[in-house]
Amino acid sequence: MPAASDATVPTGPAGTAAPAGPATPRAAGSGTATPPSRQLVRAIAPGAVTVAMSSAGTPAPGYRIEVRNASGTPVPATVRQELPDGTRATTVTAGGTTTRAAGRAAPGEITWQLTLPARSTTTLHTALSAPPRGRAVTAPACALSEDGSQPYDCATATWSGGTVAAAEVTPAPVWRRTPVLLAALTAALVITIGALWWWQRGRRGRATAAGPGRPPASAGGPGTPLYSGVPVRGSVYPQPAAPGPARRRRTPPVWLAVGVAAAVLAGVVGAAAWTATQRVAAIDTQKQPTSGAWVGRTVSGPVGAPLRETAFEFTVYRVACAAAATAVSDRECQATVGVRNLTPEQQTWHGQLQRAYLPGGTWVSADEAATRAANQGRDVFAEPVSAGSRKVLPLVFTVNGTDAPKQLELRSGVFSAGVRVDVP
């Protein structure tokens, strides 16, 4: 595809245009050429080439990619942007080309072959076809070595198209929440039953006070002798007053005790049922069985989305598999993964905990030997991830047959629920 008119052309320190391509150096005393990317990758300091990305507020998905070279030498690089399913590139600047992935109707990626001038920033623009209404589009981009084997840095951006994020949805009012309603109902029942009991108790007390054996208020004062119910004054031998009825200790009626117990029991059972329903609804029925994943909850998302678990934030920028020679042969699938340590301490992780799930439900762990070779001999699992630091590196999974992984599971530790990345 031809470059758009607003292409940004990187310039060197003196303001001259960057060369179209690097010269291929030769090894001393040898007649064969040394791959320039391999030679420059060793010389480039970590973090010298960085990528920043943002989405445009346009009706169709648009992205701005900034690739910065902070080193003092020009760096040949391949910049690659992934295209989500169902989209195609409509605008590509700076001479980028689109390629179709096997089995897809839309282009799979946009690729630029650039030479990044020393201490410069190269800006690229892309635009994609409009997706269905309400769908967010995430299209990550990476800067890699010239042959595309070693990632320098990656970034991601999501075009939302004005959709409302889930975090912005207004929660239900407090008075409409099930636990609050159950508590209010239980309290109302208890108060009503208590008021009825108090009213019944006062009524019985008044009836007892007006019963037989109690003289009327006009019958005389205290200590006045009675004869046949008539007060006698001046009697030499006064008759003692008739003793009142013995008062027994009152207890709540049976119906009241049963009612209060039933109300409390109903409230407890209702709250327990609601809690159990919420927990069952939160269970991911599509989750593959894992061993020991009991800390936290598994988070799922697409390629390019940052996903956080107990210790790490994982971002899968790209998954590419080599062509299968036969239906039963092994082949390598390489995932470009960003790992950020969110904890205040350094963390270690293990290759056996990183898995690729195939369509049939079987899975394979990361091929540590192939991953070490893809990282130029570095054992990335033997190097702890420092607190607050971030790494972008390739992980290799060796799979059998022609099927590509449909999901990746990445975890920082055996007791972490980890994250799951859906591979298109």
From TrEMBL:
The keyword Transmembrane helix appears for this protein: yes
Region annotated Disordered, chain positions: 1-37, 206-225
Coiled-coil features, chain-numbered ranges: none
Transmembrane regions: 180-199, 254-276
Biased composition (Low complexity): 7-36, 207-219
Keyword terms: Membrane, Transmembrane, Transmembrane helix
Protein name: DUF4352 domain-containing protein
Organism expressing this protein natively: Micromonospora mirobrigensis
Record lineage: Bacteria, Bacillati, Actinomycetota, Actinomycetes, Micromonosporales
